[in-house]
Amino acid sequence: MVFFARTAQGLAEALRRAVGREPVWCIASAIPEAEYARLGASNLTRFAESASTQPLAQVLDTINQHHPGESIWVEHRAEL
Questions:
Q1: % of residues, the chain, pLDDT over 90
Q2: Which of 6, 47, 58, 73 maximizes the CB count within 10 A of its CB?
C-alpha cells in the first residue's frame, strides 16, 4: 500500500501506519522542507507545492506511475 497525505496530521498518521516500510507521499505544505530533509525517511516523497493545486486524479496518477498496481491510501476529511 502507498500512503498519500495532504496535511501534517495526515502525514503523521501515514508515517505511523507505514512503519518505515511502505511508501508515503505528501504535498509540500504537510511538512516544511527543513524538517523533510532532517527526517531523511527513505520511504517519504514530498511533492512540490504545486501538487496541492493539481486535481487529485493527476496526483494519484503520478503516484501510480511510481507504484503501479499498489493500493493508495488517501487522506480525506469530510467537509462539514
A1: 74
A2: 6
